[in-house]
Structures are given as structure tokens and as C-alpha cells.
Amino acid sequence: MSSKSEREKRRAERLAAEKAAADSQKRRLMFTYIGAGVLTLVVIVGLVVVLAGSGSDNSVNAQDFPANAHIQPQSGSVNGVAPDDREGTQPPPVQQGDLQAAAKAAGCDLQLNLKDEGNNHIKPSDPVPHYGTNPPTSGDHIVPPLQQADGAYSEFPQPVRFLHSLEHGRIEIQYSPDLSDSDQLALKGVFDEAPDGMLLFPNPDMPYEVATTAWTQLMGCKTYKGAATLDAIRDFRDTYLGQGPEPVPIQFAG
Description:
Blueprint: H1 3-58, H2 99-106, E1 108-111, E2 121-122, E3 141-142, E4 151-152, H3 159-167, E5 171-175, H4 181-193, E6 198-202, E7 210-214, E8 217-221, H5 227-240
Parallel strand pairs: 2-3, 4-6, 5-6
Antiparallel strand pairs: 1-8, 5-7, 7-8
Helix pairs in contact: 2-5
């Protein structure tokens, strides 16, 4: 073979090798771009899912709960506590409009202007504080927005959660779960007549059959005495509703 033919052969082989190497590089780049594109798509989809989930939490409204519970999620969080959707018994007209006189007639203990035990915010993982009264009326409590939302509940919320609600000017009617159904429905009727800014729930741990609380205010009734107790509860509500140290506008549950 002539030297010219040999040179052409080597040149053709070199060009073929260079072309193969270039094709291989192109394939590697293509796979890299495809991988990056897939990763970007995964990230975008993840962001969409997160944003969509966040939006669903923010879109919770009163219509998502039983109407008779009057849950107002804009005022806080339900925290997994079951609503009380029973229809209460319509209460009789108020006979005694003075809180002091009504509490005395119902045999209830009024503890007014109690010591303010603080209002620091604590995380759910923090130890539960000791409170000076039972039910508590002030003290360190859960961070927002985990305060218990306005409404009626069939279970006992955590005190660190409903204490924060008191700070926002809410009134809470608490009752022994040992009360008869008819007595519970009578209390529910008082709640139903004016549910805005109110919470109603059973409390198995307090020394009263019925208690009504506001921030640093407590009315404890050892025994439920029908209409007399209902009068005292309504007088307490009308006196202290919206009077917390950090009042938050009351959302109307409708």
C-alpha cells in the first residue's frame, strides 16, 4: 500500500473515532438534561402539592362542621376535638340580671379578678404548666393559631389551648360529663342562644358540676340548679365577654 493510501486510511480512522467520541458526549449531555428536567418537574410538583395542601387548611370554614356546633375556625383551631352537634333546649327568660345576686341564688362561687398567672406562649412539646385555679383562668398557653376555636365540643380540649382562647376575650362554659343529658342540653341551649365568642365543653377534672370562665374570672357551681344556674351563666357571659387582655374580634359563626 502506498504511503498516500496509508495516510488516508489513518485519517479516516481518526475521523471515525472523533465522530464516535462526539456522539457519545452528545448522548451523555442529553441524559444529563433529561435528568435535570425530571428533577425540576419533581420539585415543581412537590411545591404545588405543598401549596395546595396549605390552601386547603386555610380554606376551612364554619360550613365544614355541624351547624349546631357553631364552630368558628377563624378564631383558632379545632385541634381534633369532636364538635357537639346536639340541639340544645331553649332556655327560659332571664329572671335575675345581676351577676352577684344570680350566682348567690344558684349557689355558685364567684372568684373575680384573680391573679394573672402570665400569658407566655409555649410549644406543644413543652411541659404543661401548673395553674393556680381549676378550671384555669390564666397562665402560659399554646402558641397561635392553636388556641381552641369558638364552638361547642363533646370532648375536653387541652387547657393550654382553651386558656389562649380566654386571653382573646372568650367565655367558656364547662360542665361535668356526669351531668344528665337533659342538663347538658339545657347548658347547650344557653350556648346556642348566643354562641359568638363562646366555648362549651365537658371537663372531667374540675371540682364543679358547672363552671364558667373568662380571663382571671371564675364562677364555679358545685351543683347544677336549673334555671338559677342558667341565669348566672348568662349574667357572667354578658359581663365578661370580650374583656380579655388580648381581645380578638369575634367571628360570627352564623
